[in-house]
Amino acid sequence: MEKTKHLIVIAAALAMTLIAESIHAQTYNVMEIVAADRDKIAGVEGPYRFDAAHLTPAPKGYTPFYISHYGRHGSRYAWNSKAYTLVKSVLDAAAEAGSLTPRGEKLYKDFNDFYQIPLINTGDLSELGREQHTRIAEIMCEEFPEVFKDGGKVTAMASTSQRAIVSMNAFTVSLQKHAPKVDIEMSSLHTNMIYTNPGSAPRELARRYQGEIIVPESTTDVRERMTDYDAILGKLFSDRGFLEEIGGRRDFVYELFNLWAGYHNYSDGDWLEDIFTKEQLLAQWECENYLHYVGHSRNRYNMITILEDIIINADEAITTGIYKGRFRFGHDTVFNALCPLLNINGCGFQADKVEDVKYWFQNYNTPKAANLQLVFFRSRKNPVILFKALLNGQEATLPQIQAVQGPYYDWDEFKKWAASEIAAHPLIQR
């Protein structure tokens, strides 16, 4: 008995050591990873990265038969016209006040040459956004041809946003091209918003669930503490007194960074690339990352409607063999909440320090056209249904349940975990 206790203590100590080493590795590497890639610094405004995937073969005898998916719309113009109008109003006021530095003068000219078409197209999907979803569907068919080779039904639904609808269209056209036997049913209904964009679902259908996340510090305080306003603004303006009359420094720097982060989704120019130093960019990334962790991930439990939809439709596909895929198209606000709910790669962890958030949650995992695919596998000899998760085409982990082999998980074990998670966060009665 004493020997058993001793072994348990050793095992627990070893586990804690491994966890500590993992956290240390994350602490050491995450900012280096961000610094090395402009698109990752851009966070949710970055375009999709088609990184090479090295997929683990399925266990012997298992073949894929169904895919459940949630995808963000593809690359777009800025989602809010303020990204253009506020920057313009500040630059106009600075020009009128004679407060532009030489770099500010160049920005003023370049921005005036640039902004009108993006402003008109505010919120619209760009051509790059269509290309992303076309390619994502093509890759999916290349990697899992067994799912679609014999036909079957596929359902696709988009939020009522234009950019989500056009993304769905690009994806399904590509899917039909590479899997001509499938029967695709598409929809963009307000009644389906609880599965595509729960936060914007009609009031009659909206659901809210109990549950909060740890918020170590207000996002405003974090931004004030981490942003070097004097250095950023001093590069553009010789005097900044006019700023307080038209919104202040925080909104301008916020919108200017978002403009820098997102303009490559619809423009090949490079006229903004020297506005921020690398250190300033990394600080802005960490501010934005924390903002998305707090703002979107605090809604994770309201994504339970999507989790339930995933389970119900996967079980129907397992039972009937008719359905081959269910594809949902929506937004970063959903994706940034759904992944923590499902604890993809451990991103559901709640940090009690601002500086620790980035080691568990990274908004660069939600680029334009971000997608989560749950790919299901079955065997003629084994009744256990397996699945694996792909985050942006890369195999992901679900640390809350034990893997069967490599990245493959037992579907019934996942459903048991999901049932406990749903029970722990009950529906709030209207």
Summarize the structure.
This protein is α/β, with parallel strands linked by helices and 430 residues long. It has 17 helices and 8 strands. The chain has 2 domains: 37-77 and 129-214 and 295-424, Phosphoglycerate mutase-like (Rossmann fold, 3-Layer(aba) Sandwich); 82-122 and 236-274, no CATH class.
What's the β-strand tally? Answer: 8
Mean pLDDT: 92
Total count of domains: 2
CATH architecture title of the largest domain: 3-Layer(aba) Sandwich
Assembly type of the chains comes to single chain
CATH homologous superfamily title of the largest domain: Phosphoglycerate mutase-like
Helical/strand content category: alpha/beta
Number of helices: 17
Task: Catalogue the unreliable spans.
Answer: 1-26
Q: Examine the coordinates and then state which fold CATH places here, giving the name of the CATH topology of the largest domain.
A: Rossmann fold
Order of helices and strands: HHEHHHHHEHEHHHHHHEHHEEEEH
